[in-house]
Amino acid sequence: MPIIWVAGTTWDESAAKVRTPDGSSVAVGGDVSGGGGQVSEVGTVYGEEVADRVAKCSDGGDKAVYISGASTA
Q1: Exposure of 25 by Cβ count < 10 A (0-12 exposed, 13-18 middle, 19+ buried)?
Q2: Closest by alpha carbon to 63, among 46, 72, 71?
Q3: Is 73 a residue whose pLDDT tops 70?
Q4: How far is 40 from 13, CA to CA, in rounded Å?
Q5: What is the pTM of this model?
Q6: 54 and 66 in contact (C-beta within 8 Å)?
Q7: Are 70 and 8 spatial neighbours (Cβ–Cβ below 8 Å)?
Q8: Residue 10 scores a pLDDT above 90
Q9: What b-and-e string marks burial along 53-66, b requiring 16 or more CB atoms within 10 Å of the CB?
Q10: ∠50-47-54 over CA atoms, to 5°?
Q11: Predicted pLDDT at 28
């Protein structure tokens, strides 16, 4: 399932890492711990732009995992 990261999270293309708002980072395949859950009908909660991105990442699905707080290992 696609992940909806906490606001302020960015993708570092050159390092192939996700950078969280606290400045930590995690590479693809790395470990992350945090709070969150699963959301259905992403468009209702996050808007159509996010729903379109989720659909592209999940072969048309409308479910995603969201992270409300994260720390990387």
Answers
A1: middle
A2: 46
A3: no
A4: 28
A5: 0.71
A6: no
A7: no
A8: yes
A9: ebbeeeeeeeebeb
A10: 25
A11: 87
Amino acid at 63: K
Burial of 20 (0-12, 13-18, 19+ CB in 10 A): buried
More confident residue, 69 or 13: 13
- For 56, the 3-state DSSP assignment is helix
Structure tokens at 33: 């711990």
Q: How far apart, in whole angstroms, are the C-alpha atoms of residue 32 and residue 34?
A: 7
32-68 pLDDT, tens per residue?
A: 777 888 998 888 988 999 889 888 888 777 888 888 7
- The type of residue at 72 is T
* 17-19 β-sheet, strand order: 10-12, 17-19, 25-27
